[in-house]
Design a protein that fits this description.
- The protein has 44 residues and is mainly alpha-helical.
- The chain has a domain of 29 residues.
- Helix content is 70%, strand content 0%.
- The protein contains 2 helices and no strands.
- The N and C termini lie far apart (32 Å).
């Protein structure tokens, strides 16, 4: 599991996510969403 998944499932002692990590996670999520939307629209 990723650190984000573990932290949300098992809250407790963990390091805070800094702004740079947050922005990178959001950017990657957008890349994945854009890819998924492209794949789905091509197969309709």
């Amino acid at each position: 599991m990723t650190d984000y998944a573990v932290t949300s499932r098992y809250p407790g002692d963990y390091e805070e996510i800094d702004r740079k990590e947050y922005l990178e996670a959001v950017r990657l999520a957008q890349v994945i969403l854009d890819w998924a939307e492209r794949v789905v629209s091509q197969n309709l």
